[in-house]
Predict the 3D structure of the following.
Amino acid sequence: MTHDTELDSIGADDEAPSQPMMLPVLPLRELVLFPGITVPIAVGRAGTLKAIEAARADGEPLVFAVTQTENTTKVAPDGLYATGTIARIEQVQRSLSGIQVILRAERRGRSVRYERSGRGYISAAVRAVEEDLPGDVEDAAFKALYKEAQERAAELAKKAGLPEETVRQVLSGIEDAGQLADLVAGYIEVPSEERQRLLETTSVEERLRRVLIQVQRQLEMINAREDLQSKIQEELGDRQREMFLREQMKTIQKELGDDDSGEELEELKAKLDALDLPADARKEVDREFKRLSRMGREAMESQVIRTFLETVSELPWNERSEESLDLAQAESILDEDHYGLADVKDRILEFLAVRQLRQAASLAEREAEALRLEEAEVAASDPVGDSKAEAGTEAKSTADGHKAPILLFLGPPGVGKTSLAKSIARAMGREYVRISLGGARDEADIRGHRRTYVGAMPGRIIKGMKQAGTKNPVFLLDEIDKLGASFRGDPASALLEVLDPAQNDSFTDHYLGIPFDLSEVTFICTANFVQNLPGPLLDRMETIDFSGYTESEKLAIARQYLVPRQLRQNGLREEQIELGDGALQAVISEYTREAGVRQLEREIGRLSRKVARKIAVGQVERLDVGAETAKDLLGRPKVHPEKMMAHDQVGVATAMYYTPAGGDIMFVEATSMPGKGELVLTGQLGDVMKESARAAWSYAKAHAGALHITKADFEQDVHVHVPAGAIPKDGPSAGITMATALVSSLSGRKVRHDIAMTGEITLGGRVLPIGGVKEKVLGGVRAGIRRFVLPKANEPDLEDIPEDVRDEIEVVFVSELGEVLALALRDASYEGGRLLFPGLRPEDVAPLSDIPH
């Protein structure tokens, strides 16, 4: 290769005189090569190939890489820019598609002239172009420009996805501002015309400023694109993203051969077809399945429909437990699991007896119906025969339509309501489901949510049926009196349909939207307070009252159930401990105060643990626990029940009261003092109790002569107090007790300490009935009292008291206050409606009542 040393006038005015080099021209289309850049270039044109061969034939494989002014396949000297890059051919690679040349640009060059060589390529007389450096490279403005260009270039590289370490290494290898400008210009995305202008700019400061502007534009474009993508992503939302991901998952599953959605649909279809659904339910299920089949798995509603159909397929539409109607076996199971509760057990056995008889009657009617149907087939054209067949169908419907009663177990905590429901299920051979309604405040807890809501699910009733797996379980609705109400609805109202035997054969859960038959379910509800139940709900249930246990019953329950269970739970064997009746009796009377046996079991467990500790550390090998030992182990007694007064007192009468924890006695105290004839009431008395006291006060004033009270006595103040002042008290049943204490205080007569009374008083002196007779009497017996005064109307309630207790006590039934006073006041009697004391004749005393005696 020859280098032309001849000078030309073109470009000589602005360039320093130098010897131009004759170099083969490498024309570039839409590519501008900057000094310091190494790039691969695909070569395919014949002239370009010859230019490369000519350059490689020389000792220095240099070419003049210059950009075409227009993107054409034919290259002419007048279609090339004057300014280009002197580049060295580093490597040439040949392949089937052509030749790839790796060029390393070394410096700028400007063509003095272009000429066609005789070997088919263009040559150029090229003179190197020197850069114009700033006058002072240490100038603060120039250094700031250089620093800003470096930082923006690094930022752009990071946004383009280049590793931070690579960017740092490249930038650290740059020695001057011109090299930085050329490097950045070579990689930014700008039109080729702008690249050419940057290449032609010899002023380093000007080129650096132009490059910085282009970099800044690139950064703003990238930031704008990121903001736009973020906004689009927000608009698409999570659902669109989920759809996109599901589509990707579906594609991946198909590639892997794991796409089993078709098989799942077939399995679901088989389950649904096997169900014996009512016509309305079948129509809805088929419609939803067709919708599911039409839509893709990635559709938003697909999972909702699938979950609905799976729920329907798992419900017991016709599965039933085979009932055990053996009354003897059922009675044995109930007696085995629970002590006492005779009335409750009788009611359950009556229910089973009715089921047994109706089942036998239904079987006989079905056999008769089958016979009638056979006759109807023979006489198919006879309208009379058709009517017989219809009658048979109606009989079957009537026989099968026996509605199970809704039972309400009502009583204090710990008396066995919940556990008895489980025993009933075992006795009947049915599945057992329990749901607790305590604190439920949302109607959707019962009826479920509509499927249009996100996260919708069935209510607790349908969930319970799904859990049972049969159509006829024993379903316990526990703590039904603890239901609440809120802005989400009243769950107690939602239960009206569930607990109505006339309606629950078509119970519709909001989630299902199709009727479900609950008529074969035996619903049992439990509650502590009947006052908390709405009237319409209570009207749908048959109430079975659970009263508290007597001390003898608690002793038997502890001996039969609680002690063995607690010994097992605390790792004790029967030969290691002996809990005597005295110890159990002490625990019952001095450490527990309840109607049930929950606290009693806890105390027995506590006692067992203390014995277990002594055995574990080797203090004893066996321990016989009596009353005193039990007290030593358990510490001081926790309960201090009232005891009978030691002697008679004026103005102090003994009343009986009832709480959910059981019955007990309390004392009503009345005392007279100088004053203005006012009645003072203390002891945290409720309104009803205060009214009873005022009624007794008015009665005493109205019948002062007959009660042996002088007018001067009423000029004093009378203070009535009921001890345990920190405990609120209310109710009318202390009416006769308050009247007795008032009359005693005003007349100065002592009240018998060995008698307890309960009953409501009217202004005319009549004694009205009250509730909780059993618990009140048992509380009095625990206090040591053996004589009781009860309203005449409560005489039938005496049967609720255990026979062994009835044999030990004396109960007097009264209908008016005079009878009460005659019994309660010491040495008093009641003859002919007159209250008499020793030394008084009937004709000298005014009658308390005009009722003949």
DSSP finds 26 helices and 28 strands in the chain. The CA atoms of residues 114 and 124 lie 4 Å apart.
